[in-house]
Structures are given as C-alpha cells and as structure tokens.
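Re: beginner question about structure tokens

> Can someone show what the tokenized structure looks like for a real chain? I only ever see the sequence side.

Sure, here's an example I had lying around. Input first:
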Amino acid sequence: MKIAVTKLKEKSEGIRELFSRYGHEAFIVSTMQAGEPTDPAPLLHLCEMISNGRIDILIFTSALGVEKLFEKVMPRNVRIVSVGPKTAKKVEEYGLSCEVIQSFSSENFAEYLGDIKSKTVGIARAEVPNPELTGSLASKGATIVEASAYSLEPAACEFIDILKDVDSVIFTSARSFESSGFSQDLAKKLKVIAIGQKTADAMRKRGIVPEFVGNGTLESCLSHLS
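And the corresponding structure tokens:
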C-alpha cells in the first residue's frame, strides 16, 4: 500500500524503512516545519534544573525534543521515559538508557510512572501544550517543569497533490492535520488513520472520522494495516 504520512522533515529518519518492513511504501509529507521556541526561557530553566540535579524524571514525546534538549544539556542520574521506540532510539544514540512507553495518553503515563509523589518531572516537548498530561501527573503529587524544545509552523508543501497517488494517509498529530488542508471529500477516497486519540479528536471536529486510531505510534497504525 502507498501511504502518505505527515512527518516533520527533522523527524522522518527511518520512516521509509519502517513502512517497508510492513510491506508498505511511505510518502513523507511535512505539513509543518520546526522552529525555535517562541519563548526560550522555559527550556533554559529546564536545562538549568537538569544540570543542578533537580529533575527526577525526564519525559520525551519526540526524537526532535531529545535532540533539541541534548544540544544544551546532557542529563545524568535521571530516569528518562520516552514515547515510542524511535524516541527511545534517539536517547540511546547519546549513550543514555531510557524506558519506553508504547501507548501515549495522559492516563497511561500517570499509571506507568507509578508513585511520583514529591518527584519533579521535566517534559521537553513541541510547542503544543498538553494540559491533560501535566494535570494527571500533578494530581499524583508531582511537580511539573515543562518546556517547549521547538515550535511548529505551517510549511508550504504539495500535500493535496501527493494524495492523488496514495491509498492511505496517516496523520501523526492534531497540528499536522490542521495544517494540511485535508477535506471531507478527500476522506471519501482514502483510508484515513489517526496516530492517536488527540489527532482523531481534531479530525472529528472537522467532520472526518478516522478509520483507525493508533496508540500514539506509527507501529500501531502499520500493524493494523497489515
């Protein structure tokens, strides 16, 4: 199957090889591009806390977040938790070990981390707030220090033209969907998949019901297609 996948150029490493392993051909489309954080202060504050050993758990939701943070500071003696194997692989490339959570949801994270009362949790993410995640962790008694490692901006692309040559499309974030210009008419011609629940919610708000909703990873989407 020929599948369009909305991925940042900076986050597309290994995507074609992954799809090939499942017997599909990936067409990577960047409906967004990464930029510097609008306000760099929170990221610098998080880096300072890591340097001073004041972060107990460090969460990464993307490989790009790993790169952006590690450009500024290398954590030591910190419990690192990554969303999905690709993010974990990026952490390991820097010689660090980490835990992998396969299903990215606020409830899963809070349950996975266990007893985090009085712990300080750092989150390096895209400039897309996730109040559900921070709220669920704070409700368990943790102190949350989150920072935007990079911003997301609309990118000029030929997304609609590419869709003429594919059988399916996987939207990898709510923001990538909202920036794509995807319409209900296009949805009638393609198998449309959301990588996770937040992406699916954004699609439904525009009248598009995904055929399948993954658990936050491309692997879950590809497993379903196979």
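Each token stands for a local structural state, so reading them left to right follows the chain. DSSP finds eleven helices and eleven strands in the chain.
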